[in-house]
Design a protein that fits this description.
By secondary structure, this protein is α/β, with parallel strands linked by helices. The chain has a domain at 3-117 and 193-216: Rossmann fold. It is 48% helix and 17% strand. It is built from eight helices and eight strands; from the N terminus they run βαβαααβαβαβββαβα. A five-stranded parallel β-sheet has the order 2-3-1-4-8, sandwiched between helices. Strands 6-5-7 form a three-stranded antiparallel β-sheet. A hairpin with a 5-residue loop joins strand 5 (129-132) and strand 6 (138-140). The longest helix is centred in the last third of the chain and has 24 residues, at 167-190. The protein is globular, with a radius of gyration of 19 Å. The protein binds zinc ion. Zinc ion (ZN) binds at residues 132, 134-135, 137, 152, 154-155, 157.
Length: 217
């Protein structure tokens, strides 16, 4: 039986790194909803064209269309052992639709690891980033500071904060994520498949805790 995993974690929790490691380790296809979208739009598939229509009218792409894209993606060869979904579902309604779709194949979401990191820690991680104007070298105030504050070690150019790395932006992104995701977390908790993982631990430890949870699920 293929195994289906939904990975959850706020921005700054290291979800991307863990998704890569886990999918490699377990032979699962790493399916990011953003990638599927871009691919369907780029290749002008039927589904892509439909989605484009909604976007052109400034409307949200309906869940059933997104589900169709995911269904299509899950039928490719690299999904034989299963898949790790990243970025979808985002709401309990989408989770329900996904569950129904998998049930048609006698499958289900087996495990939902949630990489949990306190908001203050996420803010420290994400706000401390400074980028060099000349070549985009990236530093972090706390984890990887430049030798001279405000100056790039490599080329001596000025360091600045991208809008995405500014405190107001980061705080907003995190609170929006937590607000939107908490109903989804509750949904999967009730189904008994949620595995909360302490994302403040070292990266390797987070990986091994996730693998343990996935093998149990
Ligand atoms: Zn530089």
């Amino acid at each position: 039986m293929p195994s289906y995993v939904v990975l959850l974690g706020p921005p700054g929790a290291g979800k991307g790194t863990q998704a890569e490691r886990i999918s490699d380790e377990l032979g699962l296809a790493h399916i990011s909803s953003g990638d599927i979208f871009r691919e369907n739009l780029k290749n002008q598939t039927e589904l892509g064209k439909k989605a484009q229509g909604y976007m052109n009218r400034g409307e949200l792409v309906p869940d059933d269309l997104t589900i169709e894209m995911i269904k299509d993606r899950l039928q490719r060869d690299d999904c034989k052992a299963g898949a790790l979904l990243d970025g979808f579902p985002r709401t309990p309604a989408q989770a329900e639709a996904l569950g129904k779709m998998l049930a048609e194949w006698n499958g289900k979401v087996d495990c939902v690891p949630y990489i949990s990191v306190p908001a203050e820690e996420l803010i420290t991680r994400l706000c401390g980033r400074w980028t060099c104007r000349a070549q985009g070298h990236v530093y972090h105030e706390k984890f990887n500071p430049s030798k001279k504050p405000g100056v790039c070690d490599v080329d001596g150019s000025e360091l600045y904060q991208r809008d995405d790395d500014k405190k107001e932006t980061v705080e907003r992104r995190i609170s929006v994520y937590l607000e939107q995701t908490s109903p989804l977390i509750e949904y999967y908790k009730k189904l008994g498949v949620l595995a909360e993982i302490d994302g403040t631990l070292p990266i390797d430890q987070v990986t091994s805790l996730m693998l343990k949870a996935l093998k149990k699920g």
